[in-house]
Every structure is written in C-alpha cells, then in structure tokens.
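Dear support,

I submitted the protein below through the web form. The confirmation email said the job was done, but the results page showed an empty box. After a refresh the structure appeared. I'm attaching both so you can tell me whether what I see now is the final result or a partial one.
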Amino acid sequence: MPAGKDTDPKDPPLPALSQRQKPEIGQFRLQVDRQTKASFTTYDAAREAGLEIKKGYPVVRVAVYDVVECVNQIIELPTA
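What the results page shows now:
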C-alpha cells in the first residue's frame, strides 16, 4: 500500500478542501463585499457586527441578508 493511503476503500471520498463550507446556523448572514463572513441568530447582532466592520473599512459594502425573508439590508454609517 502506498504511503498516505490509510483510508478504507469502502469509506466515501472526502470533499476537496475548496468544496468544504462552514455550516450556516443563523437566519442572518453578514456579508462584506457580497461574501458571507458570519451567521447570526438575530438581526441586531448581525447589524452590530456589520457596523464595526463599516467603521473600520467605510469603503466596503456591508449588508445583512435574511435567509427566511430573502431581504438584503445594506449597513450605512450613521450621520452625525
């Protein structure tokens, strides 16, 4: 048996590393430049995290996507 072939041939093949995805648990997804970065169970928690990112990087597009309602809410910095 060649080195590195310690798996049982009866086992299903593992997906390639690039195909593995983190489990999405929360209803609200935090997106930065249209890429999902985190998942939250409440809108307020997702919005708070989005505001922190927006404060540090005001140029990027930050949004909270609701997977149940299919609504995308863009986060803007509050004006004084």
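Response: this is the final, complete result; the empty box was a page-load delay. The longest strand covers residues 35-40.
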